[in-house]
Design goal:
alpha+beta; globular; single chain; 183 residues
Length: 183
């Protein structure tokens, strides 16, 4: 997929990726609900009795143990407005013993999709953590797979490996690459 097919409009002037604060946990949880709704055709997630999809790991992003596990929550802002989030963790889908930077979850509100916001913020996230990265997509989510292939290919200048995984832990694709300290 070419960049011109993903970017329909110019990138907004003010795009920011910042660490979410503990008092923003509810805000992030609300956006996670929207994200999980978008994913429900691929995951079969069932809505809870209170009308919400639940993400059981969100509280880990503000605990000492979560910080030790390399979990960092981010808020994406466009022109000062909430536009999405990214959750970074340090677990590997390929090797349980490996410590890597992992895009655990990534979401851009529909209003900002197709304008380069996701690509810009994914790159900003990669830039923050040198070392090995993993980015995974569910097999059934072809749009996410195409998005991440383009972003990672552009970011790494074609220096990444894609793994096709189908086991008890994951059914989909995982791209791995190195982000050097001097990049």
């Amino acid at each position: 997929m070419t960049g011109s097919r993903l970017a329909k409009a110019p990138i907004p002037q003010s795009v920011e990726l910042r660490v979410a604060q503990p008092d923003e946990a509810v805000t992030l949880g609300n956006m996670l609900h929207l994200y999980l709704h978008d994913l429900s055709p691929f995951t079969g997630s069932v809505i809870e009795r209170d009308g919400r999809f639940i993400y059981p790991y969100l509280h880990h992003y503000w605990t000492a143990q979560g910080k030790e596990e390399g979990r960092v929550p981010y808020i994406i802002l466009v022109e000062g407005e909430l536009a999405g989030f990214a959750l970074k963790a340090s677990h590997s889908r390929l090797d349980r013993s490996a410590l890597v930077s992992n895009v655990s979850e990534f979401f851009v509100l529909r209003r900002w999709r197709g304008q380069g916001v996701g690509s810009l913020e994914a790159r900003a996230l990669f830039d923050r953590f040198p070392g090995t990265w993993e980015v995974a997509q569910l097999r059934a989510n072809a749009l996410a797979h195409a998005f991440w292939l383009q972003v990672i290919d552009d970011y790494t200048h074609h220096r990444f490996v894609e793994h096709d995984v189908n086991n008890e832990r994951w059914n989909g694709f995982v791209q791995t690459f190195e982000r050097s300290r001097g990049a």
